[in-house]
Specification:
The protein contains seven helices and no strands. The protein has about 130 residues and is an all-alpha fold. It has a single domain, classed as Orthogonal Bundle (DNA polymerase, domain 1), CATH 1.10.150. The N and C termini lie far apart (about 40 Å).
């Protein structure tokens, strides 16, 4: 069951930004709710593991989360769906803010989405 939009107003600013940008993008309410949930879990992972948030995380933390999903035992298709929502968040932010640094993060995340874990480590560390 989808969460009411009233509950979204109590979310952290990054979640509200995602909902606003994704609504403009045309995502369905069920996709908004699922993406919001994924971002909340990713945000919690970043906070606990790296003491970072969605605005300060980079592709290395994304790769760690991707590995975490694989190790957690969830289905690959589910993990790919989670990864897609995270990438969508960064794409929407990059487009809205026209920030070259955000665009670079989005590009690296997208390039790493389907790469095996070993290939991720071969990327430029910047």
């Amino acid at each position: 069951m989808a969460l009411s939009t009233d509950a979204w107003t109590h979310d952290p600013e990054m979640m509200r930004e995602f909902v606003a940008l994704a609504t403009v993008e045309g995502l369905r309410p069920s996709s908004l709710d699922q993406g919001r949930g994924v971002l909340l879990r990713y945000s919690q992972f970043l906070k606990e593991r790296f003491i970072l948030d969605l605005t300060t995380a980079n592709w290395k933390e994304f790769a760690a989360y991707k590995a975490h999903l694989v190790q957690s035992g969830i289905a690959r298709t589910t993990a790919r769906g989670y990864v897609s929502y995270i990438i969508t968040f960064y794409r929407l932010r990059a487009q809205a803010m026209q920030d070259p640094q955000l665009l670079e993060v989005f590009t690296k995340l997208k390039a790493n989405r389907d790469a095996p874990q070993g290939e991720i480590r071969k990327m430029d560390p910047n």
